[in-house]
Design brief:
Elements lengths: L4 H8 L5 H13 L4 E4 L4 H11 L9 E4 H10 L6 H9 L5 H18 L1 H4 L5 H10 L1 H5 L4 H16 L6 E2 H9 L10 H12 L12 H6 L3 E2 L7 E5 L3 E2 L3 H12 L3 E4 H6 L3 E2 L5 E5 L2 H11 L6 E3 L6 H12 L3 E4 L5 H13 L3 E2 L4 H6 L21 H8 L9 H8 L12
Length: 420
């Protein structure tokens, strides 16, 4: 059927019906829905529909039209083969948005599939799936597939170069990206690499809110020298003649705790002699100080995180785990302490050290400050969180010193036995 352009222009053309035509085009382009409701319709729009459909004028500002009815009316009147042909004659071709969206989806799927073989040896297929599902790559690339492909290539180039213990992040960026600042916060490739390190690369990081140093230290990379991230240790057994081992051996012999920096742990790591040995981990440095004072060199290996673990703590725990240590872990009895335990247990096969409801109940009469922050569960002991909530106050490690030091004593009477 041919078009009667003159009648079509008279019925639907002109600026007065431009909004109506645009909405009809959008509906056809999306390929869905038989009716269209035009709110706050103008007299010109209502008159156009009334002339086209031959119906009496209606009151009200809301205009409801049937697309199949308009389509049939145009064809029956010999004005146009149908609504789509009429709208395209007046304003040009209608975009097939559904087909465009399907084509775009296929392009992005192909983009991810093209690098899956590179990601597989790194154990990063789940990283690709997450990027695809959450749209992070699409946002960083500003919806440009070519830019997205370049960002994926850059990110995988960086990840393929890891780990590289002791290397500065700026050096890594210069080597892999040709830009020493290419992995700084705010850079698109940095966001993708950080996501991989945090959630997927070699098991990811247990902490849900790791800082920048912790994320990069997971791959052995230093940020800004990393002498401010430290971990307090006491009587950790070492072997060999590396600089780190020599330093700690002297500290152990004289019964003095030592702070190790992230830089030391990455560039001059001691050779740990911890296979099948218990290593105790607490939250507060006071426990270490009291252990050194009361137990001297007869103290079991002990670490203090100084609160929520930072980069140096996470790295040391990784090194000790890889050396075969059995980690015995605890924190304060408060919501933050339970949250810390959850982070650690998500990453390591650690055993809670007097971090249970029974220990808390034995000290029911010991006062403490009010609980603060959001409540946390304790999956390793389902009774702990309800017991702590009912208590309503925290119980810090310093109030358990006698029990903790008894566990740490290496005298024949104690021999590191941990009792509930």
């Amino acid at each position: 059927m041919s078009l009667d352009r003159e009648r079509l222009q008279r019925l639907l053309g002109g600026p007065g019906t431009e909004r109506l035509r645009r909405r009809l085009r959008e509906r056809l382009g999306r390929g869905g829905g038989d009716t269209l409701t035009l709110t706050r319709s103008t007299p010109e729009e209502r008159a156009a529909v009334e002339r086209l459909l031959g119906r009496a004028p209606r009151s009200g500002s809301s205009l409801r039209v049937s697309l199949p009815e308009i389509d049939a009316t145009l064809a029956r009147a010999g004005i146009a083969p149908g609504l789509r042909a009429a709208l395209e004659a007046l304003d040009g071709p209608i975009r097939d948005q559904q087909a465009e969206q399907q084509a775009e989806t296929r392009r992005w799927q192909a983009l991810f599939e093209a690098v899956r073989e590179r990601a597989a040896p790194l154990g990063l297929e789940a990283w690709l799936d997450e990027l695809a599902a959450r749209g992070l790559l699409k946002r960083l690339a500003r919806r440009d597939p070519a830019r997205a492909a370049a960002l994926l290539d850059q990110s995988l180039t960086v990840l393929e170069a890891l780990p590289d213990p002791g290397l500065n992040r700026s050096t890594l960026a210069a080597r892999c990206l040709g830009d020493a600042h290419g992995l700084d916060p705010g850079q698109p490739a940095a966001a993708l690499v950080r996501r991989a390190l945090h959630r997927h690369w070699r098991g990811g990081i247990g902490d849900d809110r790791p800082d920048e140093r912790t994320i990069w230290a997971h791959a052995g990379i230093l940020v800004g020298g990393d002498i401010t991230s430290t971990v307090l240790v006491y009587q950790l057994p070492v072997q060999g003649d590396t600089p780190g081992s020599r330093m700690l051996r002297i500290q152990n012999q004289v019964g003095e705790p030592a702070y190790l920096t992230l830089r030391q742990l990455l560039r001059h790591p001691p050779r740990w002699d911890c296979a099948d040995r218990d290593v105790f981990v607490c939250e507060n440095p006071t426990v270490v100080a009291e252990a050194a004072e009361r137990l001297g060199t007869e103290c079991a290996p002990l670490i203090s995180t100084g609160g929520r673990p930072g980069a140096a703590v996470w790295l040391l725990l990784e090194q000790l785990r890889d050396a075969g240590a059995r980690l015995q872990y605890r924190a304060d009895f408060d919501w933050a302490g339970l949250s810390i335990m959850n982070s650690v247990l998500a990453r390591f096969e650690a055993r809670p050290w007097r971090m249970d409801a029974a220990t808390l109940q034995r000290h029911a009469e010991v006062p403490g400050p009010p609980l603060e922050g959001p409540a946390a569960a304790a999956p390793w002991d389902p009774d702990l969180a309800p017991t702590l909530a009912a208590r309503g106050t925290a119980l810090h490690e310093e109030r358990l010193l006698d029990e903790l030091l008894a566990d740490l004593s290496r005298s024949p009477a104690n021999a590191c036995a941990v009792s509930p």
